[in-house]
Prior knowledge:
mainly alpha; 2 helices
Amino acid sequence: MLSVMSDTPVKQQSTAxxxxxAVASFAVAMVATSIGIFRLNADAWVRAFxxxxxxxxxxxxxxxxxxxxxxxEAGQIVSRxxxxxxxxxxxxxxxxxxxx
Length: 100
């Protein structure tokens, strides 16, 4: 019987500490930016424009990160399906079978 090794990657998960650090870092950056914008010595419309620009930048960054993650996951799924097909073909192939 032919044994085929699978090259399935192990799904890595972030630790709770890394998750907490990422959330805290994001919160500190948003608070610091908000304080900086609202304490800026400029007209209200300039501060409002900067605040909206920051919010747009944040939502765009989240969307970009999601799109990149989705593409990577889709590529892994296609790769796994292709690998499963190849594994099946190799398992069913008998090089000593008599050809007709």
